[in-house]
Design a protein that fits this description.
Elements: E1 3-8, H1 14-29, E2 33-36, H2 38-41, H3 56-59, E3 64-68, E4 72-74, E5 89-93, H4 130-140, E6 150-158, H5 159-174, H6 186-195, E7 200-203, E8 209-211, E9 223-226, H7 232-239, H8 246-252
Parallel strand pairs: 1-2, 1-3, 5-7, 8-9
Antiparallel strand pairs: 3-6, 4-9, 5-6
Length: about 260
């Protein structure tokens, strides 16, 4: 079954970031990538572009989708099609650990290697991002263990199994749950996953590493999730075309360094 990449790119600077993200994805996976942009915006009732991932299957004619955010850059060789189709949503664990933010240390990077697992990584209570977890849980009435949450900035989806999940999240986002001022559609996705008993396989952290201030990262990273507001220089270089390839992203973040 066919697999196609998909991201969202609407308005500067995310239109330029999305083009680079799609280019990096295709260069390192060999798969085509679709950018949901201005032409699709007219068909979506939701106003915030971050939520457009919920409509991915409406705009991508494929049985399997590798969805990635416009600020997630594939900088290592990878074949996501080899993991699809899958009854499970395949993604990395959500950024619920203080190692991800604000410490930006190597606490989770050590968990780089291995295959996808149905068991999320254990995060001890003293390492939890309690403010983030409470904000998402209270907003959407979520009672599931946050250790089980995924980060939806990269996720591998199968149409027959996971389109109903996205549809349910759409309904929650446009209705009962609504738009979170900081986390947008994410509470609706977590709540819908709980309501529908969606199952997950967890990719090792190296597939989705949060970059939110740190410049030097170790080798072996597949996907770098760059929070744009923390890297204005990087964003400007993407916009003006100075950074335009996976190698440029690697070099900027010193990912070739040990």
């Amino acid at each position: 079954m066919d697999t196609v990449g998909c991201t969202v790119g609407y308005l500067p600077p995310y239109d330029a970031l999305a083009r680079l993200a799609a280019s990096c994805f295709t260069a390192n996976t060999g798969l085509d990538a679709v950018i949901i942009g201005p032409s699709e915006a007219k068909q979506i009732r939701s106003l915030h572009p971050a939520s457009w991932r919920l409509w991915a299957f409406d705009f991508v004619d494929a049985g399997n989708i590798a969805y990635f955010d416009a600020d997630w850059f594939c900088i290592g060789r990878w074949d996501p099609s080899g993991l699809l189709p899958s009854d499970d949503v395949i993604a990395s664990q959500d950024f619920i650990s203080i190692s991800d933010w604000p410490l930006q240390d190597d606490g989770d990077i050590a968990f780089q290697h291995g295959e996808p697992s149905r068991c999320p990584r254990v995060v001890t209570s003293d390492r939890l991002r309690r403010d983030y977890i409470q904000a998402v849980s209270m907003f959407a009435g979520i009672t599931t263990d946050p250790v089980s949450w995924i980060n939806t900035g990269l996720m591998l989806l199968n149409r027959s199994c996971h389109e109903p999940w996205l549809r349910s999240a759409q309904q929650l986002y446009l209705g009962q749950v609504g738009h979170h001022p900081d986390y947008y559609e994410h509470p609706s996705l977590v709540r819908a996953a709980s309501d529908l008993s969606i199952t997950f396989q967890y990719l090792p952290r190296r597939f989705n590493v949060l970059a939110a201030g740190r410049r030097r990262w170790p080798r072996g990273i597949i996907g770098l999730h760059v929070k744009a507001k923390h890297y204005p220089e990087f964003v400007q270089k993407v916009v003006n075309g100075t950074i335009c390839s996976p190698e440029d992203v690697q070099n900027y973040f010193s990912c070739r360094q040990g």
